[in-house]
Description:
single chain, mainly alpha, two-stranded parallel sheet, 12 helices
Amino acid sequence: MTGLREHLKPGAIVADMSSSDPIGTRALGAELIAAGHPFVDAPVSGGVRRAADGTLAIMVGGDGAIIDRIGALLGALGASIFRTGALGSGHAMKALNNYVSSAGLIATVEALLIGRKFGLDPGLMADILNVSSGKNNTTELKLKQFIISQTFADGFPLRLMAKDVRTADDMARALGIPTPLADLCAQLWEDAARALGEKANHTQVLRYLEGLGG
Length: 214
């Protein structure tokens, strides 16, 4: 960040729209604010399609007056802007969102593998899940489109999902919150990332789970 700071105009606002460690964000923010650069964390959710059409969900942490000053910019990028609280809270919410999403994806793929082995039609399973209590982001937007079709082309790398789930799990540990499911999810996604490689899409976790059964 020192290198970036040298190129900032005096008083320039920095909006960190990455997915980052929220505790580190607070430390970075204190450094930048002390140097005269207002700082907010504003990670996004919605994937490639919603980034292209400007309908992302944006989670913004930081000083409300600073958020007001960049409101037009955020509005051009997202359709849902959430003020999550103090600096770092946006990154915290993004990590937790991706943890919930990742857990739902794993459960969905495991159910698909079980059902397929039993003789259920995968497409029919997706249809039933989407009108039943098992419906989630994966069943609606990924199961038929990228997983059953095996196109694996939704645009979000597996390694980034692994990073975000680990961030959520590490945050829980730092706060002293026991999270046995998050512990397992973080390890599973990291194992899948190592097994499938740098370029794997996160929906390809299907391949990793298939491989566990030989």
